[in-house]
Amino acid sequence: MMGMAATAIRFRLSSELRIRENGRMIIKQLSETLINQIAAGEVIERPASAAKELIENAIDAGATRIEVATAGGGKTLLRVIDNGCGMGPEDLALAIRRHCTSKLSETLFDIRSLGFRGEALPSIGSVAKLTITSRPAGADSGAEIAVVGGKVGDVRPAAANPGTTVEVRDLFFATPARLKFMKTEKAEAGAISEIVKRMAIAFPAIRFVLSGTDRSTLEFPGTGDDHLARIAQVLGADFKDNAIELDAEREDVRLSGFAGVPTFNRGNSAHQYAFVNGRPVQDKQILSAIRGAYAETIPQGRYPVAVLSLTLDPALVDVNVHPAKSDVRFRDPALVRGLIVGAIRQSLQREGDRAATTGAGGMLRAFRPGFSPQPAQAWSPASSPSRPLYGTAPSFGSGFAAAAAPAARGFGEAAQAAFDSLTVPTARSEPIPSPAPQSATVEAIASYPLGAARAQVHANYIVAQTEDGLVIVDQHAAHERLVFEQMRKALTGRRLPSQGLLIPEIVDLTEEDCDRLMTHATSLEQLGLAIERFGPGAIAVRETPAMLGEMDATQLVRDLADEIAEWDTADRLSAKLEHVAATMACHGSVRSGRRLRVEEMNALLRQMEQTPGSGQCNHGRPTYVELKLSDIERLFGRS
Hints:
It is a single chain. This protein is α+β, with helices and mostly antiparallel strands. It is about 35% helix and about 20% strand. α2 (about 30-45) crosses α5, α14 packs across α21 and α16 (about 475-490) runs antiparallel to α20 (about 575-590). The model is unreliable at about 15-20, about 360-440 and about 570-575 (pLDDT under 50).
């Protein structure tokens, strides 16, 4: 079959070549409709692209109120209503023709409007059913024109309010192949929502309203000159309390905006917004500069929140790079990068060392009714009479996997019982005194690779004695790795055990984040996290993984929503479940500052010896360091 197919292809190609060699190649002018459809392939990539072009037209028309309505994720209906200057009958006839615009003079070096190419409306009309109704301010009546699949109708009188209404129905009906590449209705609606948010941030004086078929409405009232208030409408009220204002200038390039403190970070880069002369852009160079400015201040896998606005002479930036106008080219890119990095770093040095205010909420949630700290207790052989916590000493030659004693249980038994009884740290960070068990028992425990726990210092580091030295363990990093390995096993096995919450945790999110989470609710349930919708803009957490114990479910759900948004599609989620497990493990592991009893510390050490890769945490940092006795003696000059 493969041979026959190859033969057929070769025959077709050879026939085409003979036609070109023996006959005259005919060059002809493409039809206007076909030209517009070709242009639409670049300008109108998806419903969100059409929404962006129509909103830009409304802003250029001087609108102070813009309403966007969608159905079917914008594929069935996209309607944009503005109260701008409007158009007369003559302007309507020209507006749907290619390269007709009122926003461009004779040069591309002085572009001061969002639109300027004159391609959007004819491109939309070539692949959809387009209707434009407009009435200039002061006119007695309006006019209307329709374009269906490239076929232009006549301009006719119509009743209309001052301004313009553009209605797009059945997008891509004239190019059905493009419909195959569209995402789900929720995904397309989410992309339109993101466009509205970016435009709302760029133009705080304009009132934006977005409504959809699910009857949910997203509204951003105008805030005048208060840019930070508008940003808080989009990014949340927390941003206002955790933002550092930026205002810097270098060689006639001005940078303004706000950057979040390093501790106010998110799980993806979707909360970074950049604008050039008021135009929303997604420029890789600007995003790279933001990443460089926060280098070494934000953990790997976390992203800062920032809204940057660059203002410069239009001649110093090329916005005509792509028909979508989302990319720009600076005449001096090094200058722009240096300005962004320098301004953010100076601001961080000035006041960026303050903690994010969102941490206070997590601290308050830790004080639950009925919870009281218990005094740390020393270990004794009688502390677990029914089953010894430690077994006989193994040989070192068999490695960590063989070093665990037969009685060393998994998290569902001894280790889980130990970590379920974690205590709250006291005000002081004094070491926990080691127990005084029988000498033979201590020697047996010390013969394990990670030895016997002797103390906990600064409520974070476990000091263990081995036969020939000592080991210092980071309790949070170590437990994080153990939890992660348990969860990773569950990805290919049975569902992780979960614990039901007496009162469900209600997490307020955007509709887009709620939809993303519910799309993957089954996969998350495999990890022991049971969620469900709780009205518009909210998720109810019913169950959490049992092995995580007490945890901040709200922050976990928000981080998961950010990460799922970064992966785009459900197909990629299966390849990223391990990353989800790592996030859950980080949230549920024993935290720094927890006072542990000696039996709890030893249980952790035994589990580390059983777990492959326990020498480093999920982020690549070491979980323990080891000092040989000879190294210690060398410090004191004894060798």
